[in-house]
Write a structure and sequence with these properties.
The chain has a domain of 164 residues. 35% of the residues lie in helices and 16% in strands. It contains six helices and seven strands. The strands form two sheets. A five-stranded mixed beta sheet has the order 1-4-7-5-6, with helices on one face. The chain has a two-stranded parallel ribbon with strand order 2-3. Keywords: Membrane, Transmembrane, Transmembrane helix. This is TonB C-terminal domain-containing protein.
Length: 266
Amino acid sequence: MDKILDFIEKHKYGILITIVVHVALFVYFQLATYKEAILFEPWNFTTANDEVQDDIAITPDQIETPEERQLFNPQEKVTSFVKDQNDSRTRSLKENVNYTSSFQKSSAEQMENDYEQSLKDEIRRKREERNARKAETSAGEQKVDKKNEDKKNDHKSSGSSSEAVGGKTMVSFSLINRHPLNHNDWYVRNPGYTCGNVNGTVTVSISVDVGGVVTSATVIDEQSQNASACMLQRAREYALKSRFNYAGDAPKKQEGTITYRFVYRE
């Protein structure tokens, strides 16, 4: 304690000067701050209601087209028929007509022969797949029984119209010189009411073998509009279920498309 007091007594003038200098600096800076003036510009109320200019540029591709507006129009007239986009028959908008995607020109005997050939091709394809997997199963016989049952159901379908359906349909396809199996549009089924109350279109690229079986299906994004995840899933699923006629002169892998239109349903 004595040492501290001796130190203070010895340096009391230096300590005093240091304190005075710090106090002086503090007072100076405080006074200098008060001298600074803060100016506020008066508010001109005459421009308060002036409209602010919008400098956002709108390009032509951002403008909604009539086709895009129709996707959200629940009152749009869309029929549940299947349309062949390559059908050369006269298009008609008549109501109460049993429109089909193809005109049945073949004789009953020729249709039977085509169908039997498609069954043979299907059985052969399934047998090759089973041999490749080395699986022993009786699925071949079950497939034949199922096809025979489908064949009986096909004969219950009514005849086709000599005119093709006009306007927009929920299903349309493009597959050159091919038609749904046995001229029955049930083989290109319609998922258009399975994804809720929203409009949209999905186009699927398909590959079809000689027997008419759809071997692959891929969604074409650039040709689809307002497509939800449900629509994309349903479109691919139903495309793989589609079945076309047997054509011995067709390519082993024929390319085509199916377009599904999903519509608003009240």
